[in-house]
Amino acid sequence: MTLSEMTERLFRGEPRAVARAISTVENSLSDSSELMKAVFPQTGRAVVIGITGAPGAGKSSLVDKLAMYYKDRGDRVGIIAVDPSSPFSGGAILGDRIRMSALGVDKNIFIRSMATRGNLGGLSRATVDAVAILDAAGFDKVIVETVGVGQDEVEIVKTADVSVVVLVPGMGDDIQAIKAGIMEIGDVFVINKSDREGVIRTEKELQALLELAHRPDMWNPPIVRTVATENKGIEDLSSAIESYYEFQRDGDNLERRKAIARWRLLELLRERLLADILKPSGAGQLIDRLAVEIAEKKSDPYSAVERILKQ
Amino acid sequence: MTLSEMTERLFRGEPRAVARAISTVENSLSDSSELMKAVFPQTGRAVVIGITGAPGAGKSSLVDKLAMYYKDRGDRVGIIAVDPSSPFSGGAILGDRIRMSALGVDKNIFIRSMATRGNLGGLSRATVDAVAILDAAGFDKVIVETVGVGQDEVEIVKTADVSVVVLVPGMGDDIQAIKAGIMEIGDVFVINKSDREGVIRTEKELQALLELAHRPDMWNPPIVRTVATENKGIEDLSSAIESYYEFQRDGDNLERRKAIARWRLLELLRERLLADILKPSGAGQLIDRLAVEIAEKKSDPYSAVERILKQ
Description:
Chain A is α/β, with parallel strands linked by helices.
């Protein structure tokens, strides 16, 4: 498949071309460039929904049910599940197959997990590129699901049009652990597993925290109760998402889009600079040799970096 | 304080010099270089313990109780709390003060939170540098606590001598959400809040997952039950940590140290390359201007990066 064939099929929404394009942005920075230059002008139509929360909050079930809901309403839905916690094993791919069979093989739902490959970074960049690809391929809703509350994961969720934070009852005193940063990114809050004990207390505590939190845009984030495994509260969640989407679309959100653009630019720049440094033959061996010297305490990372930059 | 004064006082373990040195690695990449070149040769004596787990697992209480336990045994203990989820607010600093007053003002316990500053990265590098500073300052135990299970957070925990993963009972079916990556980094597992319902089930499920997981080093990670708020199980945790520390110290762990050194080197290289690109006057404005063009869809990140690199 040549690049122009790939993009042509991609813009028609062909699943195989979509999968191929995502693999490209995931595996090769240099091949991504031409592809993404063609993809970007075609983006901006999808509603991008970021969903985050701690492990065990039931995010995957929630995402699957929300996707089914949208599909039944006639939308095409793309799902990107960012799974940085399994960089070593094939866990992500296995997970895709399990979820795919639950969602049914369907042209209108596309699901893909993305995991880190080695330690050269680029996961955040590849993820937002994959979202752009789904957008350009005509998916009406693109859901980005991230496990955990790490630094990169927060950044990824912040690039979405609407960010949803998923909690569960019974976090008790520990709701304080959901620190300000997470509170600030949530446009919509979900208390999943809301048939469990403690839901009222969790909701009250969350409400109190939200009232304390400073929201310069005056949006008052709604709290939605769901039981994803029983398909309860999904319509409420979809309404809450739509409300915020309309709210932010009507506002002047250039500042926000500028901040996202700046972040993407710096992520890509960082990755590209490192790739350029590692390109010359011998660069890999030099890194390995210096790593051994540092491990043996014959050198330190700062001196080693200076030696690499001198070459 | 000149650099040589700072390092001299640092090596004597003076808290103010330690705090100053950590601020240096946190705030300025260029000032870090000379400092860390002096610090590195003095490292390698501390036992570095990484503690991770989902928000709400009670990590902070557990870390505080473990630190008190070590202190009572005569150790000096340093704590670095990585808090990437509150990049915007002063949450981290406030948290330090609260915890410091609980731990008591004590020359033998040093606690410091580290949060992201803007989006120029460097948190991981600054964190491992801070650990090295505490090590060089003669702290016997250095505990690195990270919230969440993000990509960077996993990498930081992997640099520790002993990695502890904290769970809580009642994760039910969702223990599967603790994916392979997290399972693989845990040398010791803690079920905190083990006075709660569901502890037996959680322990059985964890045991089953651990038996499935491939451990090339043949270490069988112990599971320790704790109730941190009541100071229960802390001695067991300390024994489990010590067992693994002795196990890995006796093994041939050059490969592991090499992998850590390589990761540190690449992190630092990435940060340094970006800093060099952004150094010339006008570079900041160029980035801002390109960010606006991307936000307005007049350009795309890939074309923008090429323009930056041409300059």
